[in-house]
Amino acid sequence: MFDDFAPRLAQVLTEYSTPIHKGDLVAIMAPSTAEPLIAALYEAVLRRGGNPVVYASLPVLDEVFYRHASGEQLDYSDPMALYTMEKIDVQYGILAPANTKNMSSVDPARVARRRQARRPVIETYFRRSGDGSLRWTLTAWPTQAGAQEAQMGLLAYTEFMYRACALDTDDPVAHWTALRERQERLVKWLAGKYRAEIKGPGIDLAFDFNGRVWVNCWGDKNFPDGEIFTCPVEESVNGHVAFSYPTVYGGREVNGVRLTFKDGVAVEASAAKGEDYLLSQLDLDPGARRLGEFAIGTNTGIQQFTGETLFDEKIGGTIHMALGKSIEETGGVNNSVVHWDMVHAMRDGGEITIDGVLFYKNGEFVVGG
Fold first, then answer.
1. 110-126 pLDDT, tens per residue?
2. CATH second-level architecture of 5-164?
3. What was the pLDDT predicted at 369?
4. Is the CA virtual torsion 343, 344, 347, 353 positive or negative?
5. Pair 280, 295: CB distance under 8 Å
6. Taking all residues of the chain, what is their mean pLDDT, rounded to a whole number?
7. Hey, which residues does 172 pair with through a beta bridge?
8. Which residue of 127, 240, 245, 331 is most buried, as measured by CB atoms within 10 A?
9. Under a CB-based contact definition with an 8 Å cutoff, are residues 292 and 332 in contact?
């Protein structure tokens, strides 16, 4: 069952999401647990004339590193990682966890220190992604750990992912093309508008987005996909939110996150679980306490929380916000080594008003779509 998963997904990724051109230098970055998809992608890239290079990691290495690395090693910036990020034309990243809790016992300060050391690589990635010189897609592969995190058996989780990617349709590309067209109507309606107000259970938040671009996410950068997003004007965010879903960042789960914004800054931040880790990341740099993204999830094929942000931020009937780094194509200017997505349900009375006009209610668009 699902024997065609890896080759079918690899075909969509290399022909639709980020098409490979002859001569492209293509990095496939994944843990060894994604071996079937790594092999399928490697073959698909070759068939399209690209030059694939595989960077496969062992799941245990992060735990070994944080247990044994000295302060000097935590601060070391790998020149090969930077060189790779500067030279590749395409990056395919694959999420395939062997253990979703492998970082739970690691001191958050060590993780934060390591993230600072990786700043040149992170900034190069965002710069090249923003100017279009680096094309990339992030996807996932089913593992026992991912299934357990989602509270499913492996077969059920594999089926969930297969359907989330629309690989169960006769023509997945046609499916994603139709979603792209629907969302394009939404972003066109939002063009030239000024202010968003979001209200509902757990949220009362407002921000300006004048001069910012709303982006249509249709399966190129993330796969599966399904969202529209922008970057709030940095100093305009005011209000509060108590996120209804847990969030996972850097291998650590944080639950019950509450944020209060004043003039763009998260002046209050707390969590029912993992608060020390939350605060350690928000204190990495000044930009980490500002919103770098506001988005609306549109993938109605995803209706359950899995603990994997790639899927959860796309849940139809939700919004999500990212603390930290802005996505440059929106026109946002917030800078940070952090980009942390957090998801909130909107189907139980949530509303989004744009310039005084009701735009979205109970998880559905009421205008523009």
1. 998 999 999 999 999 98
2. 3-Layer(aba) Sandwich (3.40)
3. 55
4. negative
5. no
6. 94
7. none
8. 245
9. yes
Q: What does DSSP assign to residue 211?
A: T
For residue range 223-269, list pLDDT tens digits in order.
Answer: 999 999 999 999 999 999 999 999 989 878 899 999 999 999 999 99
**Would you list the DSSP string of 97-139?**
-S-TTTTTTS-HHHHHHHHHHTHHHHHHHHHHHHHTSSEEEEE
Tokens of 261: 């914004």
Distance CA 226, CA 317 (A): 11
Using the structure block, give the residue that is written with the tokens 């440059």: 328
Burial state string for 309-348 with b = 16 or more CB within 10 A and e = fewer than 16: bbbbbbbbbbbbbbbbbbbebbebebbbbbbbbbbbbbbe
pLDDT tens per residue across span 15-51:
999 999 999 999 999 999 999 999 999 999 999 999 9
**CATH 3.40.1830.10 segments of the chain:** 5-164
Would you say 223 and 13 are in contact if contact means Cβ atoms under 8 Å apart?
A: yes
pTM comes to 0.82
pLDDT, position 91: 98
Tokens of 320: 């999500």
Both tokens of residue 132? 């279009």
Torsion sign, CA atoms 329, 183, 287, 306: negative
Give the pLDDT score at 250: 82
Name the residue type at position 205.
L
pLDDT at 61: 92
Strands (E), the chain: 25-31, 51-57, 90-95, 135-140, 195-200, 203-208, 215-217, 227-230, 238-242, 247-249, 252-254, 258-262, 265-270, 291-297, 318-324, 339-345, 351-354, 357-361, 364-365
Whether residue 130 has pLDDT greater than 70: yes
What is the DSSP annotation of 222-254?
BSS--EEEE---GGG-EEEEE-SS-EEETTEEE
Note the pLDDT of residue 150: 92
